[in-house]
Amino acid sequence: MLSTKRSQSHHPDSFSSRYRAGKSKARSRDQSVITSRRLHRRHTPDTPPDGSSSSSLNQGVITLTIGPTKRLFAAHKDILCVSPFFAALCNRPSDPSSASSSSSSASKPIDLPDEQPEIFSCILEYLYRGDYYPRLRHDKTNNTWDLETATANTNTNPRDTDPGATLFVPAAGAEILRDTAVYCAAQKYSLELLKRLALKKQGLHSNIPCHTILTSARYAYAHTPDNESKLRAHYLALIIRSRGTFKRSGTMQMEMEQGGKLFFDLFVAMCNHMDDLEEAARPDDTC
Fold this sequence. Notes:
This protein has helices spanning 31-43, 54-58, 77-80, 84-90, 102-106, 117-129, 178-188, 192-202, 210-222, 231-241, 243-247, 250-258, 261-281; strands at 61-66, 71-76, 110-112, 136-139, 144-147, 166-169, 174-177. The chain is mainly alpha-helical and 287 residues long. The strands form three sheets. Strands 2-1-3 form a three-stranded mixed beta sheet. Strands 4-5 form a two-stranded antiparallel ribbon. A two-stranded antiparallel sheet has the order 6-7. Helix 1 (31-43) crosses helix 6.
């Protein structure tokens, strides 16, 4: 399918499609999607990885309680243990005082009270299918990427935020970009390929309001380590490229008055950007 063309309309507090953080062109295939789909084929419940029957695989189903409401999820152990985080939890030693077998220990429920069910649902969908909603699509004719919701509603106002782009996160007290939340969860669960996928998909969204960008950036800084270089750099580059929009944003002024490491990093990035521009403008003195 062809990528949707959005109008270049301007809005004082929103991003037009020209402010997209990522590039639509990419390599021949997203390796994160390919790798996870191959993994899914090897570990699909219909074809157990060890050649045993599907009934024996069902004995390896792990129950998870997610969030303060303890919403129930279930996943096959072999699928879940692709994540080192869950592998450590699933393979934890059983209680010495218990007479239960190792198999019953493996099926002990995992409780994640601080995780959000909507985000964890994306994690499970990725582990089983190699992607999560809205899914990534490749237009082979133009060698471009878009999201499956991009052409779902052709009558959508060009100024509207892309469907499925944001998610209310109680920890942030506001809506943030869904892909940022997924990226931070992937960081926590050590799913490097999912991090790459989430970052790629985030760059395909458009018309995201300034306040959502800034709230998402703060969330990213709060839920990634200081040595994280991808998602944080993505936001710094986005704000610099879209500085004309942010200069007119009252939200940006309030956010900067509150301060924080995000804005120190932004100041350094701005200085480096100006240095690069000055260097490029200097005449070549080499003989």
